[in-house]
Amino acid sequence: MSIEQALAGAGAKAAGKRPWFLDEEIETVLNITLAVSQELVVARQRVDTLERLLEAKGVLSREEIEAYTPDKKAAEERGLWTQEYLARVMRILQQRNEAADAPEDVASEKLGDELVR
Amino acid sequence: MTDSSKPTEVAYDGPPDYRVVGRHGIFPETSHDEVERINYLAQMNRHLSTRIMPGVKTSFEQNVEPEFRKKTGRDMANRHEARKAMLGDYAYKFWSALRRATMEQRQQAGRWTALRQSERLAEIADKLTRDDDRLQLNPAIKVPRYVSGVDHHCMPGSYHTEYFPGDVTNGANYDHAGFVTTAGMLGKYTDGGGHAVVNWVKTNLPDFKPKKILEIGGTVGHSSLPIAQAYPDAEMTIVDLGAPVLRYGLARAKSLGVDNVRFVQASGEDLSMFEDESFDWIQTTMFLHELSSNALRNIFNETRRLVKPGGIVLHVEQPQYTDEMSLYEQAMRDWDAFYNNEPFWSRMHELDLDTQMEQAGFDRASLIHGGVTAVVDKDLFPDAADDDSEDYGRKAAWHVIGARV
């Protein structure tokens, strides 16, 4: 079985029409969000596994992790990472704010009509 | 990764880590992250049943029922009115959307694990079952509409679809990730139902010494193997429609050292391959709700024909709907029928099973009624008998209906 077949097969729809409980678009987004939530937990548990193995092997102790204080440079790098991450996650709200400030915005379709006039 | 702000003395109450499940020779390999996906889903189901679902009940009582009464000037007449009214309620809608999504995520997670190693699993099955007459497949079997129409519990391809010759994918998926739905309550080998049935029979029928046992719709043998193990002198036959689950089932049984079993591809509606009075004990476990009215009748008739004098027929199922059960509970239990591809669930659970048994030729005086909860290794798994959470239709607590002829 190829990877493509396995990927498609894993996510295959079960026979039978799917019920929708919320607005179909909203429930679609909810499902994507839940999958991301699942993968966040999976990643978090993997980090936990790493920490426990490193501790068991004497590489570090988890108290060190809890007590870890980044130096200035590391703190800035980490802060920047979080800012960048939040900007990605919150992009749609940023763009809605920008749109509210752009009353002259024109839809591409409309501009297209204008450009051939 | 610990959280130092968290109190450390809180007793844990929830599903066990998936790594406590029992592995056998054809159990799929699971990576670290695949295990965590299953853990997440078991926790999510637990969260939905214990933390989200109570809000559905509150909203039903505070909003849905009063609004219905205001609008119609009367009480709800039945569970269908209750369910339809709840479809307008935010709490029911969100709980439903989350529960459906979780079902679909569970299938994707389990299917990925099974599919990515499907060739290897088929090889194991082949090695363990080749030239073994305890696996009897019938490629000519026709899959009935009640199995092919929609895939039960949103399991793509159901029990019967084969992706290549010798395939066991759908057996492997069904087996290894079943942990999710009951959050571990079915125990180490998903066999808490079988152990419960054994306990029930040993307690209630201590003199009963079966030699020939049949389980209809036994899939990979989850519930059958505990019975076969408890009665080692008996020969256990497991019939099912699906070749992938049967292949997987025999391989699983052999690797677990259970040899007094055979797996036969057949419909429970037509067991003409067996003579009248062939079995001392005929069992079904969480099976009746996946049938149709006709199929249930035909299967009951076959069990009457096949059971020996002095023998027993036992069906283990989720509780029937009764007038004593609130409309809210009935509507919640009906969820699977409408939103989790269990098309016969609703009508099956309103049947008068005593009458159905009688119509199949069992004397009313011979009927058996009881209740069981999954029997699990309590050190590792949650015990349904001690657990006061309720996940309608999912909890590992069942009714027994049957007959001793």
Question: What does this protein look like?
Answer:
The complex is a heterodimer of chains A (117) and B (405). By secondary structure, chain A is mainly alpha-helical. Chain A has two domains: 20-68; 70-112. Helices cover 71% and strands 0% of the residues of chain A. Chain A has helices at residues 3-10, 24-56, 62-67, 72-89, 91-100, 108-115. Chain A is flat, with a radius of gyration of 23 Å. Chain B is α/β, with parallel strands linked by helices. Chain B folds into two domains: 18-130 and 142-174, no CATH class; 183-404, Vaccinia Virus protein VP39 (Rossmann fold). Helices cover 42% and strands 13% of the residues of chain B. In chain B, strand 2, helix 8 and strand 3 form a beta-alpha-beta unit. In chain B, helix 1 (32-72) packs antiparallel against helix 3 (90-116) and helix 6 crosses helix 9 (243-255).
Please outline what is shown here:
The complex is a heterodimer of chains A (117) and B (405). With 117 residues, chain A is mostly helical. In chain A, 71% of the residues lie in helices and 0% in strands.
Poorly predicted ranges of chain B: none
Helix content of chain A: over 70%
CATH architecture label name of the largest domain in chain B = 3-Layer(aba) Sandwich
Q: How much is the radius of gyration of chain B in Å?
A: 21 Å
Secondary-structure content class of chain B: alpha/beta
Multimeric state of these chains? Answer: heterodimer
Derived structural class of chain A:
mainly alpha
Major sheet details of chain A? none
CA radius of gyration of chain A: 23 Å
| Global morphology of chain B | globular
Q: CA-to-CA gap between the ends of chain B? A: 59 Å
- CATH class bucket of the largest domain in chain B: Alpha Beta
Write the layout of secondary structure elements.
The complex is a heterodimer of chains A (117) and B (405).
Chain A: H1 3-10, H2 24-56, H3 62-67, H4 72-89, H5 91-100, H6 108-115
Chain B: H1 32-72, H2 79-86, H3 90-116, H4 118-129, E1 135-136, H5 145-148, H6 169-176, H7 192-204, E2 212-216, H8 224-230, E3 235-240, H9 243-255, E4 261-265, E5 279-285, H10 293-306, E6 307-317, H11 327-333, H12 335-339, H13 345-348, H14 353-359, E7 367-373, E8 397-404
Helix pairs in contact in B: 1-3, 2-11, 3-6, 4-9, 6-9, 7-8
